[in-house]
Write a structure and sequence with these properties.
The protein has 626 residues and is of the alpha/beta class. Among the domains are: 169 residues, Rossmann fold (3-Layer(aba) Sandwich), CATH 3.40.50.300; 62 residues, Helicase, Ruva Protein, domain 3 (Orthogonal Bundle); 126 residues, Zinc Finger, Delta Prime, domain 3 (Up-down Bundle). It contains 27 helices and ten strands. The strands form three sheets. The protein has a five-stranded parallel beta sheet, covered by helices on one side. A hairpin with a 3-residue loop joins strand 8 and strand 9. Helix 9 crosses helix 10, helix 16 runs antiparallel to helix 17 and helix 22 crosses helix 23. The longest helix has 22 residues. The protein binds zinc ion. Zinc ion binds next to helix 4.
């Protein structure tokens, strides 16, 4: 038998095998045993936490020939076929690869037909947030009046991109990231049952590197087995992961605390010799600083670092809280800037030396410690969540009612200068339920209150809200009034000149393939009886007889007389409506980007908070919508 990867081989086949996610398991098994079934379930969570695994278990529980049960038998043909991935009534759709509305429609059109042989027809839609707007509409129609024999199991890593109309019709379950010790236990169990030799420390390291994803944990174990052979050792695993020995990170922190630059740099030398990843070194240092800070406040709090308890306690006692905070802040910046440094090693060394340079004077009492001026600048990492957030960490399933309106709360409740709040609320009102999550990252809030806000509103007294600027480029952009032009030319029965084809093509109200075809055609000549086009051979696929005759009919109707459409496939066609639209859209985007970059409010935000304009996220508003 060929080798099967561990993540696949150890995929749970029953709810009892499921590791972690107890809150979801309990809710689902309860509803299965009591027969209180919903018609649509949504599983959210980051990758590798078990969304599709749980969905497949649900499919089995619903279709097992022994009856609807929380403990599917695993023996009947329905159970075995679902496990093997060939059950006819389980339709798995990966929305990431099927975003065209036609495909979704085609699938949803079959919803009305009874299941072939199962009890329920189960649609498992993975990464459902990747659906196009029209696919969501098709799905919504079905969810509004779902046939009794259909169940929808939706999974997503990004629930905020799902329209609230869909969310409110689903029972939502938020799957949590797996704690490292849960992953570790599973790795121990698997290595035991697979009769593999593995050092417990190596498994702990793998579990920590999995960052909450069981699937990643098992893949890493696969990798380690391939790398180390029959005996998975800590040294080899660490070198495979580019991992860092925690003991060295501890020594690094001790050197920092002593103010010992020499010791600090020789630690970097040592780690370099072991081919450690510089980003990982910073991450480990940050984790250690976090663990120590937690320990200082709560003595017996669990922490996730691999440092002996006694050492942890003595470090927590020795280093003042402000110093830990300072190192953490500087380390965070160092990590962010690492890709900008000439080499990663320089980036790491400068971050460490900066920690030394800004070290508080320890001659007096530590209470007198004040942060250096650079630290008074608010950090840009803080993001204000929009009030319209739909992501809910639901312990129990619940319906999410669509919020009546998307209204932003004032950023500062007590003292809120009008300017600042206006920016916040205008920005938020642009977020439709479908808005990309990246919008939220444009919102920057200072950490400190009062003074910073005041200086901000003073420095840009007459600044208009950012959101208002979105509208600006529309009026003076080429093609912005394309609708109006198209309509006037639509009422005319004159033969169009060749260059007007783009406008005319869009006013023909074509759909589907005929619309695609019209967009790719270049008009070369017009006579009383004939429209002659060229079609670039790269778009050959959109040409078929039906589309051509629909285009011909639409043109005849539009012109009010009989004409013939002649299409010639050529190697390079002239400007087509599609090309023209693309060109105009690029122009509008460039213009919008330029205006935003020159906007005084944006500049002030950049200056005051170190905010950065995410150029890739800019999109001009469609003149037809808004
Ligand atoms: Zn069964």
């Amino acid at each position: 038998m060929s080798y099967q990867v561990l993540a696949r081989k150890w995929r749970p086949l029953s709810f009892a095998d499921l590791v972690g996610q107890d809150h979801v398991r309990r809710a689902l098994t309860n509803s299965l045993t009591t027969g209180r079934l919903h018609h649509a379930y949504l599983f959210t969570g980051t990758r590798g936490v078990g969304k599709t695994t749980i969905a497949r278990l649900m499919a089995k529980a619903l279709n097992c020939e022994q009856g609807i049960t929380a403990e599917p038998c695993g023996q009947c043909s329905a159970c075995t076929e679902i496990d093997a991935g060939r059950f006819l009534d389980l339709l798995e759709i990966d929305a990431a690869s099927r975003t065209k509305v036609d495909d979704t429609r085609e699938l949803l059109e079959n919803v009305q037909y009874a299941p072939t042989r199962g009890r329920f027809k189960v649609y498992l839609i993975d990464e459902v947030h990747m659906f196009s707007k029209s696919s969501f509409n098709a799905l919504l129609k079905t969810l509004e009046e779902p046939p009794a024999h259909v169940k929808f199991l939706l999974a997503t890593t990004d629930p905020q991109k799902i329209p609230v109309t869909i969310l409110s019709r689903c029972l939502q379950f938020n799957l949590r990231q797996m704690p490292a010790d849960v992953i570790e236990q599973q790795l121990v169990k698997i290595t035991d049952e697979e009769h593999l030799q593995a050092a417990p420390e190596a498994l702990r390291l793998l579990a920590r590197s999995a960052a909450g994803s069981m699937r990643d944990g098992l893949s890493l174990l696969d990798q380690a087995i391939a790398f180390c052979g029959a005996n998975v050792s800590l040294e080899e695993t660490a070198s495979m992961l580019g991992a860092v020995d925690q003991a060295q990170v501890v020594e690094m922190l001790q050197a920092l605390h002593r103010g010992d630059a020499n010791g600090l740099l020789s630690q970097v030398d040592l780690l370099t010799a072991r081919a450690a990843d510089y980003a990982v070194i910073l991450e480990e240092l940050l984790s250690l600083l976090h663990a120590l800070s937690v320990r200082q406040q709560v003595e017996d709090a669990p922490v996730q670092v691999d440092v002996p308890e006694a050492q942890l306690a003595s470090l927590a006692a020795a280093i003042p809280a402000e110093e830990l905070q300072l190192y953490y802040q500087l380390g965070l910046h160092g990590r962010r800037d690492l890709p900008l440094a000439p080499t990663p090693r320089i980036g790491l060394e400068m971050a460490l030396l900066r920690m030394l340079a800004f070290q508080p004077e320890r001659t007096g009492a530590t209470a007198e410690f004040a942060p250096p001026p650079a630290l008074a600048v608010p950090t840009p990492e803080v993001v204000v969540p929009l009030s319209g957030e739909v992501s809910v960490d639901a312990d129990e399933p619940r319906h999410v009612d669509p919020p009546a309106e998307y209204e932003a709360e004032p950023v500062f409740e007590s003292e809120s200068p009008a300017d600042f709040v206006k920016i916040g609320s205008d920005e938020a009102s642009f977020d439709s339920p479908m808005a990309p999550a990246s919008r939220a990252s444009e919102e920057v809030s200072p950490v400190t209150s009062g003074p910073v806000v005041e200086s901000f509103s003073e420095s840009v007294p007459a600044a208009a809200p950012i959101a208002g600027r979105h509208d600006a480029p529309q009026s003076d952009m080429p093609g912005a009034d394309g609708h109006a032009v198209a309509e006037t030319s639509g009422s005319s029965t004159e033969a169009v000149v060749v260059s007007d084809w783009s406008q005319q093509a869009y006013s023909l109200s074509l759909t589907g393939l005929a619309q695609q075809l019209a967009a790719q055609l270049a008009l070369v000549s017009v006579t009383d009886r004939e429209y002659r086009f060229t079609l670039d051979t790269s778009h050959r696929a959109v040409l078929n007889r039906a589309a051509q005759s629909r285009l011909e009919q639409a043109l005849c109707r539009h012109l009010g007389r009989e004409i013939k459409v002649v299409i010639e496939v050529v190697h390079h066609s002239d400007e087509t409506p599609a090309k023209e639209r693309q060109r105009i859209e690029q122009l509008r985007l460039d213009e919008t980007t330029r205006k935003l970059q020159e906007d005084p409010t944006v500049k002030a935000l950049e200056g005051a908070f170190g905010a950065q304009l995410d150029v890739a996220s800019i999109e001009p508003l469609d003149p037809g919508k808004s």
